[in-house]
Amino acid sequence: MTNRKGTGVIKTILGQVKEFKKDSLITPVCMILEVIMEMLIPLLMAAIIDNGVERGDMNYIYRTGAVMMLLAILGLMAGMLGAKYGASASTGLARNLRAAMFDNIQTFSFANIDKFSTAGLVTRLTTDITNIQNAYQMILRMCVRAPISMITAMIMAFLINAKLASIYLIAVIALGFCLFLIMRKAMRYFQQIFPKYDDLNASVQENVSAIRVVKAYVREDYENEKFTRASGNIYQMFTKAEKILTWNAPLMQATVYSCILTISWLGAKMIINNALTTGQLMSLMTYCMNILMSLMMLSMIFVMVTMSMASAERIAEVINERSTLSNPSHPITKVPDGRITFEHVDFSYVKPLPQAASSEEKAVIDGEKGREKEAGELVLKDINLDIHAGETIGIIGGTGSAKSSLVNLISRLYDVTAGSVSVGGINVKDYDMEELRNQVSVVLQKNVLFSGTILENLRWGDKNATKEDCIRVCKMACAHEFIEQFPEQYDTYIEQGGNNVSGGQKQRLCIARALLKKPKILILDDSTSAVDTATDSRIRKAFATEIPDTTKLIIAQRVSSVQNADRIIVMDNGRVTDFGTHEELLKNSEIYRDVYESQTGGGGDFDQPGGDR
C-alpha cells in the first residue's frame, strides 16, 4: 500500500515536468559525458608516468597531455551544460507545481478548504516546493553522476588490478551499510520537521494579520514566546538530525585514508615485484577517491530525496485533491428568479484532516472554522422553507444556531447531507455553479477588501462596471458619502485587508461590491453589524426601493435590522423554530420575544448615527 502511494506521489510530481522534459533528458546525458571524460583522465595520467616520465619521452608527454586537456575541457563543458539544463528543469518543475497547486486550490469547495490550514498551504507552496526543486536538480545531476562514476571507477580499477580493487569493493560495502544506518535514523527527524514549518508559518501569519490587536493588548512578549517555541522546535529537530549526519564525514575520511594506506602499502610491494607500475598505482589512488566520494554523494542524495518525499506527499495531496462539488453533466445556465425552497434539509460538516497534519495544525484548522460541532454531527436538522422571489427575509438566532450554514447552502458553497435546496424552482445541484453563484451574491461575516483602489475592489462584483455603476451601488450601500470625503475619492488606495478604512466603511464597500453583480438573491451575513442603526435603516430602505425583485436574506443579531423584513426566520440549535412577520413572532415565538425585549428594554440599541467606527 505504501509503495503504491509512493508511486502515485512520484507520478503526480513528474506529471508537472511537462515542457521541461527535454531539459530533464539533456541533463543526465551531460552528466554521463562528464563522468566518461573524468574516468579517462586517470588512465592517460598513468600512461604519461609509465610511458613518458619514466622513459623520458617528452613528445609522448605533450601528446597525451594535450588529449588530457581536451578531455578536461569537454568534461567541463558537459558539466556546465548539465548545470544549466538541470537548473532550467528543476526551476521549471517548481513553477509548474506552484501553478498546479494554486489553480487547484481555486477549485476547492469550502469542504475542501476545511482540510488544510492556511499556514499549511503556504508552507506547501514555498518550503515544500523548494525542497522538491533542489531534490529534482540533484536527482538529474548527482543521482546520475554519482552511481555511474562509482561503477565506472570500480570497473576501471578492476581492469588495472583486481586484487587492489577488491579493497575498494569491501570498503564500499562496509561504508554503504554504515551510511544506510545513519540515514535511516536521521530520516525519522527530517520527516517530523515539515509539519513544524506549518506551525511556524501559522504563528507568523496570525501575528502579522492581528498586529493591531497584539499591540493593543501589549501581547508582544507572548507572541515572541510562541514564535520562539515554534522556531525552536524546528531547530531542535534539525539539530538532532544533523548530529547523526555528522558521523558521515569521519566515517568517510576513515575509509578513504584506510584505503589509501592499504593500497599504498600493497601497491608498493607489487611495484617492487614488478606486478604493478607507478602510473597504475596513481590511477588506482584517483579511482579510490572517485569511488568513495561518489558513495558519499549518494548518501547526501539519499538524505535530500528522503526529505523531499515528505514534501512531495504534501504537494501531491493538494494537487490530487478534488472538489467535493461538481457540475452536472448538462448544467442549467439560467436562474429564473430568486425563489428559494428548502425541503427536509439536513447538513453536517464532514471534515477529514490530512494524514500529515500535526495536532497543532488540527487545532489551527478547528480554530479557523470556530465550530463547536464535531465533524459528522448534524448542524442543520429538517429545514423546510419556502421563500418567494423579491421577499426580504430576516434571519435571527443565537451564536452557533447555524444561520451562516443555512445560507451557505443556497449558493452551493456546501452540499446538503439530506433533502434538497432549490433556487428558482430548480435544485441547486442542477445549475452550473458559476452561473448560480453569479446570481447569488453573498456578503460574508468576515469582510475582505484587497489591496488596490476602491474602484478596483468594487469591480470584483462586475469587472466591466463603469464608474457610474459603482457610484450607483455605493449610494445604495450608503458608501458614496464617505468615499466622496477621501482626497482621491473612488481612486483611494485600499491597503491589504482594508486596514485604512473603518469596520463600517469596509462593510458598506463589500455590500456595494455584492450589488454590482445584480443578483437575483442577496445574502447579508451579519454584514451591517459595524454600522450605526440609522445607516442600517437607510441601507434597508434603499434595498426595498432600488432592488425590489431581488430576494434579500439578512442575518443579524439586532432585531432592529430585521423587524421590517417581510418575514423573519428564528433559528435555534440548527432548527427553524419559527417563521413569520415581526408581529406574528412577538405573539408566537418565545425566543424572538425574549431577544426583542432584551434589546429594546433599555431604550433601544446602543448604536448611534455616526458610530460606525
In short:
With 613 residues, the chain is α/β, with parallel strands linked by helices.
Jot down its keywords:
613 residues; alpha/beta; 6-stranded mixed sheet; 12 strands; disordered C terminus
Describe this entry's structure for a reader:
- There is one protein chain.
- With 613 residues, the chain is of the alpha/beta class.
- It is 62% helix and 10% strand.
- It has helices at residues 2-14, 21-53, 58-106, 110-113, 118-160, 162-209, 211-216, 220-245, 248-272, 278-320, 359-369, 403-408, 433-439, 454-458, 467-476, 480-485, 503-515, 533-546, 582-588, 590-600, and strands spanning 340-348, 378-387, 392-397, 418-423, 426-427, 440-443, 452-453, 493-494, 521-525, 551-555, 567-572, 575-580.
- It has a six-stranded mixed β-sheet.
- Strand 9, helix 18 (533-546) and strand 10 (551-555) form a beta-alpha-beta unit.
- Helix 2 packs antiparallel against helix 3, helix 2 packs parallel to helix 5 (118-160) and helix 6 packs parallel to helix 10.
- Residues 352-375 and 602-613 have low confidence and may be disordered.
